[in-house]
Write a sequence for this structure.
């Protein structure tokens, strides 16, 4: 049976940062591998690749620590107070707003300013899902420890919960923006970035994406706790 939330171990910072870096690292590895498979990914005249390993390592480090400390910290705080899935979802959203700022600046303003082929929406979403599964798998045992823990079974629960949670969030968001006509074109986003500045645009985008991703991760962690009963 899961350990009561009040009995959760208090030293969580290192565990959270490690979970975040594992999740972001796996997502970045998958995304980079699929990006390199694009026909024009290594086009002539693009010299940025010499700096990409260091830039990607910095992105994983900053994003992983931000995700772990902010989303992990808020969900840990909520779990110790006996919050259910809605409470963990809200806590994850609050943490995600803070967690998304630094990755937004690095990802949107940094990588987005490069003159290189677009990574692809499916690649970005797939990499994010893999990263979320890894984070939930590593972090949820801190929120809901079990004595009879089976790593393979727990990984299955984490994958199932992450797919359900992120898929539900994605379907609801897509339905809303489609019904309300809130689907912005690339030109609209580019004009917005030019009008307010690339860095403020990156901060805003990172906070919004972080809030939705954090809420989905919080819900997935709560669902893992339910599945593990």
């Amino acid at each position: 049976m899961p350990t009561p939330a009040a009995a959760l171990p208090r030293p969580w910072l290192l565990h959270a940062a490690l979970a975040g870096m594992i999740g972001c690292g796996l997502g970045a590895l998958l995304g980079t591998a699929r990006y390199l498979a694009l026909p024009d990914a290594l086009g002539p005249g693009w010299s940025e690749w010499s700096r990409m390993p260091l830039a990607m390592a910095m992105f994983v480090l900053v994003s992983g620590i931000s995700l772990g400390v902010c989303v992990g910290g808020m969900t840990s705080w909520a779990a110790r107070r006996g919050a259910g899935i809605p409470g963990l979802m809200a806590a994850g959203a609050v943490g995600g707003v803070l967690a998304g700022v630094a990755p937004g600046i690095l990802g949107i303003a940094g990588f987005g300013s490069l003159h290189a082929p677009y990574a692809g929406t499916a690649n970005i979403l797939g990499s994010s899902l893999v990263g979320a599964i890894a984070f939930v798998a590593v972090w949820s045992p801190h929120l809901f420890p079990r004595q009879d823990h089976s790593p393979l079974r727990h990984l299955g629960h984490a994958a199932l919960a992450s797919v359900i949670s992120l898929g539900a969030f994605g379907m609801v968001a897509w339905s809303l923006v489609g019904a309300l006509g809130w689907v912005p074109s690339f030109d609209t986003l580019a004009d917005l970035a030019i009008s307010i500045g690339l860095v403020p645009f990156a901060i805003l985008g990172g906070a919004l994406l972080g809030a939705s991703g954090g809420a989905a991760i919080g819900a997935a962690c709560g669902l893992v706790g339910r599945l593990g009963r």
About this structure: The radius of gyration is 18 Å. Residues 112 and 195 are 16 Å apart (CA to CA).
